Automatic annotation (TrEMBL):
<dbReference type="InterPro" id="IPR036736">
    <property type="entry name" value="ACP-like_sf"/>
</dbReference>
<feature type="domain" description="Carrier">
    <location>
        <begin position="50"/>
        <end position="126"/>
    </location>
</feature>
<dbReference type="InterPro" id="IPR009081">
    <property type="entry name" value="PP-bd_ACP"/>
</dbReference>
<dbReference type="Pfam" id="PF00550">
    <property type="entry name" value="PP-binding"/>
</dbReference>
<keyword id="KW-0597">Phosphoprotein</keyword>
<keyword id="KW-0596">Phosphopantetheine</keyword>
<dbReference type="InterPro" id="IPR020806">
    <property type="entry name" value="PKS_PP-bd"/>
</dbReference>
<protein>
    <submittedName>
        <fullName>Acyl carrier protein</fullName>
    </submittedName>
</protein>
<feature type="compositionally biased region" description="Polar residues">
    <location>
        <begin position="14"/>
        <end position="28"/>
    </location>
</feature>
<feature type="region of interest" description="Disordered">
    <location>
        <begin position="1"/>
        <end position="33"/>
    </location>
</feature>
Length: 137
């Protein structure tokens, strides 16, 4: 099992959201509690900068796929073109902040509108937050 599957090994739609009959995501009371960033933090702490960016891109893609299920999401898929709304953008940023312990402004969804771009942003922010000098992104 590689680092990506160890961190993001779950079926689309499990644990983080409940589905309404129309297939849209609905935030549940226990969904944040079920997001455990321990495996992600462990993988990120031993990853090279390139691996860290790959892991975070895949984490963004996986979280987005959970929220927008059953739509498949690739690394270059634009969030808004795939149906992300202001409510689901809030859910995405909240899930990613819970997993990474990195503060993500909601505007980052517009500034970095694909999993690859947001993963790159998160990798830089994660490195800055976790650097020994205490700098923040």
């Amino acid at each position: 099992m590689n680092v990506h599957s160890a961190v993001n090994d779950h079926a689309t739609g499990d644990a983080t959201t409940s589905r309404r009959p129309n297939g849209s995501a609905m935030h549940t009371d226990n969904s944040e509690a079920e997001l455990d960033g321990a495996a992600l933090h462990q993988a990120l702490s031993i990853a090279t900068p390139e691996e860290r960016e790959d892991i975070l891109r895949e984490t963004v893609r996986t979280q987005l796929a959970d929220i927008l299920a059953p739509k498949p999401i690739d690394g270059d898929s634009n969030f808004l073109e795939n149906g992300l709304t202001s409510l689901t953008a809030l859910e995405l940023t909240r899930n990613l902040m819970t997993l990474t312990d990195v503060e993500i402004p909601l505007v980052a969804i517009l500034e970095y509108p694909t999993p690859a771009q947001l993963g790159h942003y998160l990798a830089e922010a994660y490195t800055a937050v976790n650097s020994s000098d205490g700098a923040t992104a």
